[in-house]
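job 3f2a | input accepted
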Amino acid sequence: PIPLLIVAGACALFVWLVCSQEGDFRLLFVLGLALALAYGTYRFYRERRIVREGGTAMALVTEYRQVPSSDGGFDRECKYRFTAADGSEYVGGCESTIRDFPEEGCQMAIVYNQQNPGDNFPREMFWFYDT
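job 3f2a | predicted structure (131 res):
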């Protein structure tokens, strides 16, 4: 119930902001909401697809780097490889502004779609599913 309350509160705040602004500000708010909803929907269905046919594996981090971001902070990028249940080796990658990834040479848990192991994601980065 708490995530639903947070989402409901955020939606109410957004509606209030859209209604209280005029002109270009209203358009920017609507475009921002549309982008956020599109990304959230994409992320939900991707996670659902992976979890539905999910397998887990330990992946070896092959590259970790911090890249300067536009806000003066750092984005983190991670690349990894793992062996799926079919015995083949696959690669994956992810990026985030808030998560620290294991350094190069360390292992991390990933969840992958057993029907398509190229569709994979680090276990700690799922938003909608507890893996």
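job 3f2a | The two ends are 19 Å apart (CA to CA).
job 3f2a | closed
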